[in-house]
């Protein structure tokens, strides 16, 4: 049992490291696709890594009014996001410590990271930090319930809240067409856009003061702290794409009993799907404009309504057929 | 029975403390708090022993009503709530030990504090309707007197008046409930009531009355209006007791009646607590997120948590009525654990608010700021409480929230269609409440403790005395411990769950590790807080080490960047009001008909621009203001009857006689 646990631990560590290492590449793909579609040369695919390396080398300038919370938050935010990302099955469903937490805990871990980031945004006491935190929390009050409804719907469909169990369920019958799952897919895509501060909810490349949300919160960060925040947001993007893959396109994923070959196949399939997902995101972002902040409730509200309809359908069909 | 004697001695000590405090004045009043702390420790220890051994102690004393006497009983349910109550009393007493002996002790507060503490313990011990109602009233009156302690403030007087009216309505409803339970034979003892469950129609009325009686004390919408006024008006350590603990006594009352005395439930009993609870949860936070007074925000958040507990209780009723004992145990465990967790983090937050009030003299969020620099310990403890209240892992608020969501997704197993429609809706409302709670507490903490001070008082704040830090630190420790060891707490609940719903959670150790919290089945739902916390700790420490290895490690302090134009005035920061503005635009227009008016002077005019927001409290308008106006209007009309001529009075009397005779003639 202890040896088994050690293997699990190592496998978990390998998965966590891999997710961490590939995250900047995924962001690089999004940027590259966007640039090419706009007929620009675009940054190199590896620019994400260069940026992180540059930020790590630079000194960190901290505002005089900042407290210990401001300095420690990036480490915690990064760690929470990393652990959350490790919970989502990527290339194999059965190897992780995913017995330790379920979908509800996953949503809450991301919520904890967000709350810390919003607090850090208010710590220095500038108007931009506040504007970012306030808007981020407003968006979160719409996106987080939608996310919770989606994961509860999936849990009802799979009969378990464990992510590995949910993944196994979708791996076993990937093409079961259900209305509630289709609604969940739409809702999850909207939530993913909102949570990752992508267009049309937020623009990751803007620094136009009045439209910033995420960028306004992290405005005071620099150097290694900013590197950690950036890395955390890359991880979050990978997390959401992985979640979509795991739930709606799980083919190729190694089941719980697979050996090393299965893992390698799963790894290749997952990497390909992740990069494809990133490219799709780039395509989506060039084809739509950013919304005004107060139009967002309508957009993210769609996710909430779809999530609600999905769980309602899940309840009613379970009640009739179960 | 030595345990009950110990409890009795502790209650006697509380009574003695109350009497003592009425007799002395000045610094001697400070002796009340150590005495209360010792009494709470003894009472809590007895409760803990009863809960862990799963025993039941009864005692009949020849005091109280003649021929009936006083029935006392300490069963696992009372013992569990006793731990909740005495934990809060202990923390508040330790906090009280830090009061400045020369300035902060008055005979308006100190004699009533032990009385209030004793009354809450007595409610839990009562085993007949008379003892229950007597101690319930004692609890209400003691807390009312504590609310009105600062009677010079008209706000306090108004709050106390409203509280008194609502408490009277609540007690009247409970009186009615116990009347229904006692039945035509009039059995006052709970044992007699348990033996003769009422008819279904009567049971429904009793349930409604219990919901009104206990709901008004706990702050269930629409009976909540007094709570955000009265809880903040009391001294802060009493606010902590009222919000953290007294609301739990109300929940105890509801559990005692609905799960114990009322007999086997019908499935539809679940609907009123579920619907009202979900409404309460969301509405409480919408109020909280828009309010600007630190203590009032906390009081509104209490309303939300009481709503969450009632939702869990309603689900437990529904599951139990359908024989789903396992799911009922999950829902019930969620309710009980949330009661315990809420008592810890809300007491902590109110004590923290008291510390802020003491240090700055202000409760308005827009006048605070930057306290993390001036009050580092209080700020750290308050942060733990705020994150726990936002139901974020790995703190204790999340454990009960997690169990509750597990109960919600077990609801498709219920056969009733109404519950199939209701359950997803309450799932959605609970999720919304959780997200709003995070926004609410980020706002509170961000404006009060972070940023730069917005007033001179906040800039010169100082941390509170050691005893008060110990009280807050102990509660913060419990919030962390309760979050990590949720499975241990859930296991300790086993005798209560077996009594109330006839089921239990899977035993500790059935999951992957000893500390895994398991709902239903390890293959179905597991939450292992220590492992998650360990992974987060490993990940953050590794990151810390690696980043410090790789990075330049240089750090420089400089002025804030703020897009290149930092403004030295603290007024340019976001305030609590500005933080709430997006939320008000999104939710306020629907919930409170929020309207913003901006008055801009014409160009060239140097008058300041004005901005104002109008919120309409529909519940207050429809359920409090309108009946109030109706009563006033009616009494003014009837007032004319006092100034008639003698002839008219005679005519009235004659008419009354004729009408009565006519009625008599028709009916006989």
From TrEMBL, chain A:
Keyword line: Lyase, Membrane, Transmembrane, Transmembrane helix
A GO CC term attached to the entry: plasma membrane
Compartments where found: Membrane
Keyword Nucleus: no
Membrane topology designation: Multi-pass membrane protein
Record-annotated membrane-spanning stretches: 6-30, 75-97, 103-125, 146-163, 175-194, 237-256, 262-284, 296-316
Main localization of the protein described in the UniProt heading: membrane
Domain of life: Bacteria
InterPro entries named among the record's database cross-references: ComplexI_Subunit1 (IPR052561), NADH_UbQ_OxRdtase_su1/FPO (IPR001694)
Alphabetized GO MF terms: lyase activity
PANTHER family: FORMATE HYDROGENLYASE SUBUNIT 4, FORMATE HYDROGENLYASE SUBUNIT 4-RELATED
Protein name: Formate hydrogenlyase
Taxonomic lineage: Bacteria, Pseudomonadati, Pseudomonadota, Alphaproteobacteria, Hyphomicrobiales
TrEMBL record, chain B:
Keyword set includes Transmembrane helix: yes
UniProt xrefs under NCBIfam families: PRK06521.1
Molecular function per GO: NADH dehydrogenase (ubiquinone) activity; oxidoreductase activity
Protein name: Hydrogenase 4 subunit B
Keywords: Cell membrane, Membrane, Oxidoreductase, Transmembrane, Transmembrane helix
Entry's transmembrane regions: 6-24, 31-52, 77-97, 161-182, 202-226, 238-255, 267-290, 297-319, 339-359, 380-405, 425-445, 475-498, 529-547, 649-667
Residue ranges of domain NADH:quinone oxidoreductase/Mrp antiporter transmembrane in the record: 126-412
Localization, UniProt: Cell membrane; Membrane
Gene Ontology annotations of biological process type: ATP synthesis coupled electron transport
GO CC terms in record: plasma membrane
Pfam family, one: Proton_antipo_M
Membrane topology label: Multi-pass membrane protein
Encoding gene, per UniProt annotation: hyfB
InterPro entries: ComplexI-like_HydComp, NADH_UbQ_OxRdtase, ND/Mrp_TM
Taxonomic source organism: Reyranella soli
Superkingdom classification of source: Bacteria
């Amino acid at each position: 049992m202890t040896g088994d646990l050690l293997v699990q631990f190592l496998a978990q560590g390998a998965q966590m490291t891999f997710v961490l290492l590939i995250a900047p590449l995924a962001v690089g793909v999004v940027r590259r696709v966007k640039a090419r579609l706009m007929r620009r040369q675009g940054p190199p695919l590896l620019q994400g890594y260069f940026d992180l390396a540059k930020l790590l080398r630079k000194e960190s300038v901290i505002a005089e009014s900042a407290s210990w919370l401001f300095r420690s938050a990036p480490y915690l935010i990064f760690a929470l996001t990393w652990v959350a990302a490790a919970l989502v099955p990527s290339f194999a469903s059965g190897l992780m410590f995913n017995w330790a937490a379920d979908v509800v805990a996953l949503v809450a871990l991301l919520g904890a990271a967000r709350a810390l980031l919003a607090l850090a945004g208010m710590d220095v006491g500038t108007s931009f930090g506040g504007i970012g935190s306030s808007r981020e929390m407003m968006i979160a009050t719409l996106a987080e319930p939608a996310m919770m409804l989606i994961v509860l719907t999936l849990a009802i469909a799979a009969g378990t809240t464990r992510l590995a169990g949910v993944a196994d369920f979708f791996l076993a019958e990937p093409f079961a067409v259900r209305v509630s799952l289709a609604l969940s897919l739409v809702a999850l895509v909207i939530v993913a856009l909102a949570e990752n501060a992508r267009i049309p909810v937020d623009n990751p490349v803007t620094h136009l003061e009045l439209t910033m949300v995420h960028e306004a919160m992290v405005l005071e960060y620099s150097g290694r702290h900013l590197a950690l925040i950036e890395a955390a947001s890359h991880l979050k993007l990978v997390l959401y794409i992985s979640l979509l893959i795991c739930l709606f396109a799980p083919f190729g994923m190694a089941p719980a009993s697979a050996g090393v070959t299965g893992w390698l196949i799963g790894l290749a399939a997952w990497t390909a799907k992740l990069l494809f997902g990133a490219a799709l995101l780039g395509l989506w972002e060039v084809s739509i404009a950013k919304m005004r902040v107060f139009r967002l409730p309508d957009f993210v509200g769609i996710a909430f309504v779809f999530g609600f309809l999905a769980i309602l359908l899940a309840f009613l069909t379970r009640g009739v057929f179960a | 029975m030595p345990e009950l004697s110990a409890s009795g001695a502790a209650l006697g000590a509380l009574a003695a403390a109350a009497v003592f405090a009425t007799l002395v004045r000045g610094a001697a009043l400070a002796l009340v708090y150590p005495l209360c702390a010792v009494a709470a420790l003894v009472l809590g220890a007895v409760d803990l022993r009863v809960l862990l051994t799963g025993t039941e102690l009864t005692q009949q004393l020849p005091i109280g009503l003649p021929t009936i006497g006083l029935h006392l009983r300490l069963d696992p349910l009372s013992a569990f709530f006793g731990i909740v109550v005495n934990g809060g009393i202990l923390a508040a007493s330790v906090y009280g030990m830090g009061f400045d002996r020369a300035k902060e002790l008055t005979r308006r507060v100190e004699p009533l504090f032990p009385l209030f503490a004793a009354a809450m313990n007595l409610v839990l011990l009562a085993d007949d309707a008379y003892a229950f109602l007597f101690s319930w009233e004692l609890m209400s009156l003691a807390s009312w007197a504590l609310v009105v302690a600062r009677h010079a403030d008209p706000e306090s007087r108004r709050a106390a008046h409203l509280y008194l009216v609502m408490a009277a309505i609540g007690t009247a409803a409970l009186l009615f409930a116990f009347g229904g339970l006692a039945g035509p034979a009039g059995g006052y003892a709970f044992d007699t009531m348990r033996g003769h469950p009422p008819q279904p129609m009567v049971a429904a009325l009793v349930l409604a009355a219990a919901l009104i009686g206990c709901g008004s004390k706990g702050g269930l919408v629409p009976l909540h209006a007094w709570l955000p006024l009265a809880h903040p008006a009391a001294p802060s350590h009493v606010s902590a007791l009222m919000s953290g603990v007294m609301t739990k006594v109300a929940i105890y009352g509801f559990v005692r009646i609905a799960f114990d005395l009322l007999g086997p439930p019908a499935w539809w009993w679940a609907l009123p607590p579920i619907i009202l609870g979900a409404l309460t949860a969301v509405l409480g936070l919408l109020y909280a997120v828009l309010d600007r007074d630190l203590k009032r925000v906390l009081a509104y958040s209490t309303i939300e948590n009481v709503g969450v507990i009632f939702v869990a209780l309603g689900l437990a009723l529904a599951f139990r009525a359908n024989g789903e004992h396992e799911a009922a145990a999950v829902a019930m465990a969620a309710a009980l654990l949330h009661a315990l967790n809420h008592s810890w983090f809300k007491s902590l937050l109110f004590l923290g608010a008291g510390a802020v009030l003491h240090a700055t003299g202000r409760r308005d969020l827009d006048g605070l700021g930057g306290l993390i620099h001036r009050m580092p310990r209080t700020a750290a403890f308050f942060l733990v409480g705020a994150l726990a209240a936002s139901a974020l892992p790995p703190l204790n608020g999340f454990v009960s929230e997690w169990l509750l969501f597990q109960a919600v997704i077990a609801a498709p197993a219920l056969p009733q269609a109404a519950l199939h429609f209701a359950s997803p809706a309450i799932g959605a409302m609970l999720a919304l409440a959780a997200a709003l709670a995070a926004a609410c507490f980020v706002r509170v903490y961000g404006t009060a403790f972070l940023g730069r001070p917005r007033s001179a008082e906040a800039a010169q704040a100082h941390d509170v005395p050691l005893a008060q830090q110990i009280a807050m630190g102990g509660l913060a420790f419990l919030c962390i411990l309760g979050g990590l060891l949720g499975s241990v707490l859930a296991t300790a609940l086993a005798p209560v769950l077996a009594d109330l719903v006839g089921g239990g959670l899977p035993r500790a150790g059935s999951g992957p590790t000893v500390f895994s919290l398991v709902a239903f089945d390890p293959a179905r739902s597991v939450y292992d807080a220590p492992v998650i916390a360990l992974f987060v700790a490993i990940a953050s420490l590794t990151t810390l080490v690696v980043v410090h290895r790789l990075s330049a490690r240089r750090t420089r302090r400089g002025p804030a960047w703020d897009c290149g134009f930092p403004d030295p005035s603290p007024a340019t920061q976001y305030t609590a009001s500005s933080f709430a503005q997006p939320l008000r635009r999104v939710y306020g227009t629907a919930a409170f008909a929020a309207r913003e008016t901006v008055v801009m002077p014409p160009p060239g005019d140097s008058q300041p621009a004005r901005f104002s927001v109008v919120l309409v409290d529909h519940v207050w308008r429809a359920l409090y203001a309108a009946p109030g106006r109706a009563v006033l209007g009616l009494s003014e009309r009837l007032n004319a009857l006092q100034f008639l001529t003698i002839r008219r009075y005679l005519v009235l009397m004659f008419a009354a006689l004729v009408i009565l005779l006519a009625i008599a003639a028709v009916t006989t």
